[in-house]
Structures are given as C-alpha cells and as structure tokens.
C-alpha cells in the first residue's frame, strides 16, 4: 500500500520509505525535493518566497526557501538521513504573469529557484536535476524508492527527473 503524503503550499514534509510526497500547483513557488539514496529518507518543501530575512513575520519557516531547506534537512536527519548522501531536485519557479514595471521584484519564480540553488550549494547538497521556469504550473510526486520526481503539467505532459 502506497503511503501518499500531501505537502501544502508553504509546507514541508519528510518521511521514511515507503512514501510518495506530493504537492499540487507549483507556479512561482519552488518545490525542493531532497532524497538520501542510502536510507531512502525523502523530503519535499513547497516554498513561496525566496528570503525570510526580508519580512517581519517568519512564523512559518516552510514559506521561505532559505528556512524551508534548513528545516527540511533537519527533519530528514532526524529520520536517519545522512547529510552527505542527500541530493536535490527542483521544480517550479515559473513566471506565471507578465509584468511591465518592477519586473525584477515580481520575478518571484526565478528568485525562488536562485535562492534554492544558493542555499543548497551553501549546504553542499548537489542539485542533480531540475525542471524550473516557464510559465506553467506543475504538480510533483517524489518517490522514496527511487528518488524519482514525477512532474505533471497542464499542456506540457508528464516527465520524470
């Protein structure tokens, strides 16, 4: 029997094998999928904003890329993952709307992906694949058995990374 664990927006979950972690509707949000190949401990975060240091209300660490990754790694280590064995996959970070003014500030998707890359690099967690950018939403499923990230899109089909 499959153990399917739903991860909401501004949420994160970690689990032992067997599990499938899934999150719906990654638009400009970034999905950060972490996997330890040896212990098969998995983690998935659905982060909305790149940087917690820019806001006053930080009550939800999962909302921000920087704090979500720290918390997710911590939860995985508590479940027996080995930090140096963890690899990452990224999905989402789309540009869902077109803006004419204040373009850089509004490019949340791009900024989320860049923040995830930077944070993972600082933790020495390699990104082994990603499906980011574009202008469409994604739904993802992370399989603890293989570490495979299944990405479903409307109009762009299904792919595995």
Question: Main traits of this protein?
Answer:
161 residues, alpha+beta, 20% helix
Care to count the β-strands? 10
- Give the termini distance in whole angstroms: 24 Å
Q: Mind telling me the CATH class?
A: Alpha Beta
Strand order in space, largest sheet: 1-3-8-9-10
Which regions contain 5 or more consecutive residues with pLDDT less than 50? none
Mean pLDDT over all positions: 92
Structural class assignment: alpha+beta
- Our count of domains comes out at 1
Any idea of the CATH topology?
60s Ribosomal Protein L30, Chain: A
Helix content: 10-25%
Largest sheet: 5 strands, mixed
Globular, elongated, flat, extended or rod-shaped: what is the shape? globular
What is the CATH architecture descriptor?
A: 2-Layer Sandwich
* Total of DSSP H or I helical runs spanning 4+ residues: 3
Assess the beta-strand content as a share of residues. Answer: 25-35%
GO biological process, one term: chemotaxis
Organism: Acetivibrio straminisolvens JCM 21531
Protein name: Probable chemoreceptor glutamine deamidase CheD
Keywords: Chemotaxis, Hydrolase
């Amino acid at each position: 029997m499959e153990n399917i664990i739903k991860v909401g927006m501004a949420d994160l979950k970690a689990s032992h094998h067997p599990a499938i972690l899934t999150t719906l509707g990654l638009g400009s949000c970034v999905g950060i999928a972490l996997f330890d190949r040896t212990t098969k401990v998995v983690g998935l975060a659905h982060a909305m904003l790149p940087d917690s240091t820019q806001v006053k209300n930080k009550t939800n660490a999962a909302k921000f890329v920087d704090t979500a990754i720290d918390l997710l790694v911590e939860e995985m280590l508590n479940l027996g993952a080995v930090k140096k064995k963890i690899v990452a996959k990224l999905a989402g970070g789309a540009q869902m709307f077109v803006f004419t003014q204040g373009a850089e500030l509004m490019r949340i998707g791009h900024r989320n992906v860049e923040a995830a890359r930077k944070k993972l690099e600082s933790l020495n967690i390699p990104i082994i694949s990603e499906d980011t950018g574009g202008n469409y939403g994604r739904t993802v499923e992370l399989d603890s058995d293989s570490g495979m990230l299944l990405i479903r899109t409307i109009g762009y089909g299904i792919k595995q990374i």
